[in-house]
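Pasting as-is:
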Amino acid sequence: MSAVVIQSHRLLEDACRQVGLPTEGAEPIRIAGNAIWRLPGGIVARIGRPNGREVADRELTVARWLTDNGVRTVRPAIMDQPVLAGERAVTFWDELPPHRPGTAVDIARLLKRMHQLTPSTSLRLPPLDPLFKPMHRITEASLLNGPDRRWLQDHADRLATGFDRLPAGLPPCALHGDAWDGNVVVDVSGTAYLLDLENTCYGPPEWDLVSTAVKHLTTATVTAAAYEDFCSTYGMDVTSWSGYLVLAGIRELRMVAFALQIADEHPHARAEAQHRVDCLRGRKGARPWTWTAVP
């Protein structure tokens, strides 16, 4: 095991000890900003980022709210409250049945259903603040040289101004907050599930639609046909909205900033992170760009 995995496993052991769950045979599913482990007995443990108790509480509340309103998502297991292991909140979830990645149409159907719901007052959803994380990650990234860091910070400031002046669009609603195909899966019966509720918030629904549009126009990982199906299923093409370029720019910046954070934790991701910075700065030609997934 790498040092990162070993440390994550220690946190897992601490959390499982508190709730009486065994860790023998635990398997890492993903070790990144959040660490996800498969435990015996059909349970998945999610280890959040440091000081993430409030986020973990909200994830559990949102999961119950979505389930109660007919939107399939991950279901809390064992406890209704997170367990603290060091500075990290750990939540436990029922493991999903065998599944495949979701399609653009699956994403559109789930988002349309979620956006139609009226949030209960118990949710206490924060307002959409899409630039907080990338600004922090840009400041902290060890990979960046001075000119790149200053350019990204200035770019973030320009996008923040644009975000504050977004034109009118669809009525604000509860948002998934990070609605890309990696956060939707489909089981063998064809049932689609919405995953990763960490970024759930309240704001313009166009934000949830931009992720798929960016994957079509910026990284070309969603085909024209798939994007057309996405738009027809949801009932809107967000690229035709006058605020699209601002939200798309923020989404691109978040993808760059995420890669910068991962590069600090996993040195093999440094080349990809710098490549994304170079693309954003115009050093790699026009969109679409080829970006490789980082852990």
